[in-house]
Specification:
Blueprint lengths: L1 H4 L5 H6 L10 H30 L4 H22 L2 H25 L1 E2 L4 E5 L6 E2 L1 H20 L6 H21 L3 H17 L4 H22 L1 H11 L10 H12 L25 H34 L3 H25 L17 H19 L5
Antiparallel strand pairs: 1-2, 2-3
Length: 385
C-alpha cells in the first residue's frame, strides 16, 4: 500500500522527482474510455429503441438525448483536464460544503422519480441532476484534502477515524434521508476505500464505522418497506417472479438467452417490454443477450483495463493529494460497474445502481466525464515509470 500513496514520503523526496514529470495525458486510459463510451452509446440505442418507440413515438428519443449529453460531457472532460489539481486542493472544503447544501435542498425542494426523492431541478431549464452524484466527487476531494492536511497526526484515533468518519457519514446520512440506499452504500464504500488506502486502521474502521453502518442500515430497512421487500425477495427462492422479482428475472432471461456469441446487435427480445426501461440499470443484461458470454467477458475486460490504468495513474501521481483523488475516482467507477453487474445477475439484492458509461443518464454522465477529466489532469503530472 505504501507504493500507492507513499505516506512516508517527505516533501524533499517529492521535490526530487519534479524533474521526472510526464506532462502528457494517459493516452491508453483515454482510448479505453472512448471504447466504453462508443459501446455504451451503441447499446443505449439498441436497448432503448422499443421503449422509446412505445412511450415517445420516437425510437431515437433516448439516443438523441444521450449524444447531446455525451458531447457536453466530452467538452467538460477536456476543460477539466486542463485545470491543475492544485485548484481542487484549495477548493476542497468549498466543494464539499456546496455538495452538502445541495443534498439538504433535495430534502426540501427536490422531486422523485419513483420512491426516492433524489433529483434537483436546475432553475430556468428543464434539466435536473442528482446531488448524490456530485457528492461522490465531493467526498473524494474532501477526504483527500483532509488526509493530506492531517498526515502528521494520522496515528491519533480522533484524526485518523473520528473526524473523517464525521465528514463521510454526514454525507451518507443526507443521501440516506433521500431513501437512496444504493447511493448511500456506494458513497460509504468510496470514502472507506480512500481512508483505507491512506493507511487508516482497518480494525478501527470496522469497529467504529461497522457499528454505525449496521444501525443505519437496519433503521433504513425497517422504515422503508420497499427496500425490505427487495431484500426479502432476493433471499426467497419462491418470490413472485411476476411482481417482486419481475425485472431481475427478465434480466436473467436476457443474459442467459444470449448464449456464447449472443443474438446479435439490435436483436434482443427481452427489451420489448420485458426488461423494464432496459436503457437504464439493466442495460448490461441486454448487452449479454445481444453480445453473448464472449461479449460480456470482453466488456468486463475493458472495464478491468480502464480501472487498472486508472490505478496506474494514481500510483504514479506526484503528490499525496493527487494520488488519493485519482484512487477515489477510479474506485468509484469500479465499485459502480461491478455492483451493477452483480445486481442484474441476481448475485446481490436489486438496488438502483447504474453502469458507468452505459446506463442512460445525462447529468450523471456529464459529472462522471468531468471526473475523468480530473483523472487525465492528474496523469499529466505523473512520475515517469
Amino acid at each position: 500500500m505504501s507504493k500507492i500513496i507513499s505516506l512516508g514520503k517527505e516533501e524533499k523526496i517529492e521535490k526530487k522527482h519534479i524533474s521526472k514529470i510526464n506532462n502528457h495525458i494517459d493516452f491508453t486510459f483515454l482510448c479505453l474510455l472512448f471504447i466504453l463510451l462508443l459501446l455504451g452509446s451503441l447499446m443505449i440505442f439498441s436497448a432503448s429503441y422499443p421503449y422509446a418507440k412505445s412511450h415517445y413515438q420516437d425510437g431515437f428519443y433516448y439516443i438523441k438525448r444521450h449524444l447531446i449529453f455525451l458531447a457536453i460531457g466530452i467538452v467538460t472532460m477536456l476543460i477539466f483536464s486542463k485545470i491543475k489539481i492544485g485548484f481542487y486542493k484549495k477548493s476542497a472544503p468549498v466543494i464539499y460544503a456546496i455538495c452538502i447544501v445541495l443534498l439538504v435542498l433535495v430534502l426540501f425542494g427536490g422531486f422523485s422519480e419513483g420512491v426516492a426523492k433524489r433529483w434537483l431541478g436546475i432553475p430556468g431549464t428543464p434539466l435536473s441532476f442528482q446531488p448524490s452524484e456530485l457528492m461522490k466527487f465531493g467526498i473524494i476531494i474532501m477526504l483527500s484534502w483532509y488526509i493530506d492536511k492531517t498526515k502528521a497526526r494520522k496515528k491519533n484515533i480522533f484524526f485518523e477515524i473520528v473526524l473523517p468518519g464525521i465528514i463521510l457519514f454526514s454525507a451518507c446520512a443526507l443521501v440516506m434521508l433521500e431513501k437512496h440506499l444504493s447511493g448511500t452504500v456506494i458513497l460509504a464504500l468510496i470514502g472507506i476505500a480512500v481512508l483505507f488506502i491512506s493507511g487508516a486502521s482497518i480494525k478501527k474502521m470496522m469497529l467504529t464505522y461497522g457499528g454505525f453502518g449496521a444501525i443505519g442500515g437496519t433503521v433504513f430497512l425497517l422504515t422503508n418497506s420497499y427496500a425490505m421487500k427487495r431484500i426479502e425477495s432476493f433471499f426467497n427462492p419462491n418470490a413472485d417472479i411476476l411482481s417482486d422479482k419481475w425485472q431481475t428475472t427478465q434480466g436473467l432471461y436476457a443474459a442467459g438467452s444470449g448464449g456464447l456469441w449472443g443474438l446479435g446487435f439490435f436483436n434482443s427480445r427481452q427489451k420489448y417490454s420485458y426488461v423494464s426501461e432496459p436503457q437504464n440499470d439493466f442495460i448490461f443484461t441486454i448487452w449479454c443477450e445481444e453480445m453473448g458470454f464472449v461479449g460480456a467477458i470482453f466488456l468486463l475486460c475493458i472495464f478491468v483495463l480502464l480501472i487498472w490504468r486508472g490505478y496506474k495513474i494514481a500510483f504514479e501521481a506526484s503528490d499525496m493529494f493527487s494520488r488519493l483523488v485519482a484512487f477515489g475516482i477510479i474506485t468509484q467507477v469500479g465499485i459502480q460497474a461491478f455492483l451493477n453487474m452483480m445486481v442484474v445477475l441476481d448475485l446481490i439484492p436489486n438496488t438502483g445502481i447504474s453502469l458507468p458509461f452505459f446506463s442512460y443518464g445525462g447529468s450523471s454522465l456529464v459529472i462522471l466525464l468531468a471526473e475523468m477529466g480530473i483523472l487525465l489532469s492528474i496523469s499529466k503530472k505523473s512520475l515517469v515509470s
